[in-house]
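Posted in: Structural Biology > Protein-Ligand Complexes

Title: Requesting predicted complex, BES in pocket

I'd be grateful if someone could produce the 3D structure tokens for the following input. Sequence and ligand are given below.
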Amino acid sequence: MSKIDPNTFANLDDITTEHLHLDLKVDFEKQRLVGTVLLTLKTLAEEVKQVVLDTNHLIISGVYSGENSEKSLEYHLDEEDATFGRALRISLPSSVSANQQVKILVKYETTKDCGALQWLEPSQTVGKKHPYLFTQCQAIHARSLTPCQDSPSVKITYSANIDTPAPLRALMSALRLNEEPETVGESRVYKFEQKTTMPSYLIALVVGELEGREIGPRSTVWSEPDMIEKCAWEFADTEEFIKTGEELLTPYEWGRYDLLVLPASFPYGGMENPCLTFVTPTLLAGDRSLVDVVAHEITHSWMGNLVTTKNWESFWLNEGWTMFIERKIIGRIHGEHTRQFSAQMGIKDLQADIDLFGCKDPLTCLCPRLQGVDPDDAFSSVPYEKGFNLLYYLEQHLGGPSVFEPYMKAYVKYFSGKSLTTDEWKDFLYEYMEKTHGKEKIDLLNKVDWTGWLYTPGMPPVQNQFDQSLTQACIDLAQKWDEHRDQLFEASPKDIENFTPDQKVFFLEEVLQVKPMPHSSLEAMDKAYSLTKVQNAEIRFKWQMVCLKAEYQPIYTDVVKFLTEQGRMKYTRPLYRALYKCPSGSQLARDTYTKHKNFYHPICGRLIEKDLELTN
Ligand code: BES
Ligand code: ZN
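-- Reply #1 --
Done. Output follows.
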């Protein structure tokens, strides 16, 4: 394994990838991609004899040197590692000196076990007429889409030709080179090009019956035809988010910012695939109340996609920075009090995950060690919220936005197109502050408890103070319910009529933190606030969690319904775990999962199976 990235087999010190070109045919009948990848590499070391690529569950049928399949190269696939896959060791015909270009063509096909791909039957789509395919490569699944140096330390450009059956359309995390497919005989080819360098985890492909609607000067929203109007309405704020991001950082570099609304099994809220963010349909609340996820993914256009973590141990550089800028965007558009509110919601998420992992678990460090660890297993709100809190604290500590905001810009400019570690981040912070403000700021930086923030498990070493103007009412109402457990008070819809959807979520989160509610309270709460009926996914989720904590059986049917109509891990994993924890619910949890296993994305399925102790 490489020194700069413990989660890849690639010999990154010897050779690096510059460009990756895919030529793939999408075969829905056999549910596989078949074709080639052409890698343009550059040697870094002297006497490079071998190129090691990452693969996972791919069938390799030939490796060649150059652009066509004339000169065969010898290769060997190592034994499979259950987490990291199989190293593909390619022998170069003769040893190559430093700074030389090497082109390698690999013929391959994907298999049923490729974690990056979800193949949907027509019945799993909204339209029910056509099959659908989408990929999810972050963190280390690109190696199951194509052989590559699957490490975020490597920044590449890419291009692709995707042969797609009619009447389906292909889209990728790149600029589209043709509006209509190029047809030659039977084949219909969509062509793509990504000219800005990016890490392999941002390669993305979708194929399905897709329709597009323009929602801004550089944005189109794509979805299945039946939901396109709803999508166009929900995400109308997109351009305003991009502009605010540009004000805070640098001009948007990727040309287009399109959105793709996926089928319900998409395992994340959003994924920042360049030029084409992927989002879950659970954002379609009908009132634009969940679009901060879009502000988040837009922010990754700078934090993560331009300035990238070098390995998954510094994942917080992507997500912590993104939370920080996302909240600045929301603050500028909707007011500082909403930013303060969102930060407090974040503290709740952080506390919940630290409780789940255990406050001594090394994975709750901002920079965890990931040698031998699957980044999917390490995933939590820690890099997001501990990362946010570190940056929020630094901003205050160093003199506020007038000092910190120019630093943010300088940081993006300096590391744009590069990958970095936490140490390099910290070095730049010191250098910038010294150069721009002098020794006084260095004294401040030296007072920061770096070990506490970066390398100590549990909650952050400093508790930031946030403005409670939007949270207080939620806290008060939750307290009232907590205090009136035995004698119920006169609850009324008026209690929450002025709450925003977010405040309802916060209220429910507060209720979730006290001891389980008596069933009489839950019944009264539902009667007054009609919570079981709510369609907003965030509220529905929190309400179901409140009910499951109390083993309130009347909610089970609705929990099963929610668990089987969408596969976003943020909801499905905690709900399955909570249902499984109820003595009267564990069998139902396992039966529901087993019956609907095929609905879930492979990444999600694997984690639910762990949560339900169906596998190790
Ligand atoms: N990049 C992440 C999603 C991700 C992380 C995928 C790690 C695979 C591995 C994306 O930007 C994200 O953070 N999504 C959040 C949304 C959010 C507003 C915090 C999600 O999916 O909930
Ligand atoms: Zn993110």
